[in-house]
Give the backbone structure.
Amino acid sequence: MRIDIITIFPEMFAGWFDHSIVKRARKKGLAEIHLHNLRDFATSKHRNVDDYPFGGGSGMVMMAQPIADCIDHLKKERNYDEVIFLTPDGEIFNQPMTNKLSLAENLIMLCGHYKGVDERIREHYVTMEVSIGNYVLSGGELAAAVICNSIIRLIPGVLSDETSALDDSFQDNLISPPVYTRPANFNGLKVPDVLLSGNEALIRQWRSVQALLRTRKRRPGMLED
């Protein structure tokens, strides 16, 4: 998988992709992440990528020209499955979306800033608009990092135990059940006996029931869906 991220702050990504699972995926050659400074595609002397909105109003708007030129440049090199715009009013990111994007070969992620991007970019260049929650961030960089982490960990060969991702919360529209590790008795707090029984059938049944109960308590809307 190759992910190209368009941003005006490429330095913000330092460290996010150089540790843990994403680092492992990049080292194995299973995932490539390329950062593109949008200002490199600006045509003005001061490398401006934003301007005042037509019709007035507060804030600035990211200009169409640098974004269009950057995307066109990338598309000359390869085909992309999606051009994703990270924006608060996009579709809420979820596990089914993660699963779908993890199967892609090439993705572009456009990090928004200011009051957003020129609408013509959204209408003619962007194929998918995504939000990681109903709140506003100063830019799309954090959202891009979150989505990269979420989809890269699902690529076959990234996790040391590939079945681990299948047990994650939301994969079966349920929250994961409680988990425990040693010691079996911690300050008088004991691990449920069934987990120590060695009976795999009973353990699977217990985990299924606990996942259902936890989902009903914490995310009842998931059961309605």
